[in-house]
Here is the input.
Amino acid sequence: MALTLIAGVHAQAEEYTLVWSRETGYWVYSVSISADGEYVAASGWSVYLFESLHAAAKIAISSAKAAISSVKSNDYAVLQAESLLKQAEEAFEAGDYQTARKLAIEARERAKKYLGAAYILLLLALAAAVALVYALYRLLRSLYLRWKRAREGYERKKAEVIRELEEVIAMLEEWSRRV
Here is the structure.
């Protein structure tokens, strides 16, 4: 219960190229193929829509290119991903769509892993920045509280001095009245 399309029959060598193969799990009663052979619709107990290995490889290569360009640098992981992408494009040009698709998907996954690591580093840097800002906040708050206590102490001392001066003035006024 599989649906298989074989194309590219060479009369002399009797070679066949597997375009795609999918396990349906049920009987397939009708099949329609797009004019360019890129898509196939099949029906049985369910309706299936398939893309050819050529189309899947092309999509996987485009996706890998996008993933790699989003993390472009001289990093080893990106260089590996680019190497895999190049191999995928070579396999695609040679007509080995299954290998091209497999290599392109692996290239995309390598680029995504690198991107994930870059995000983790970014998050770690952000966490360090937050910790630094918090430490700076605590330091400034501590300095402010010290200044506030010192000012309150100054205000208390000032009030005491004013009270003492008022007492001295009051004593002098009383003394001057007596004299």
The first strand starts at residue 2 and ends at 7. The mean pLDDT is 77. Residues 97-178 form the longest helix (82 residues). DSSP finds three helices and five strands in the chain.
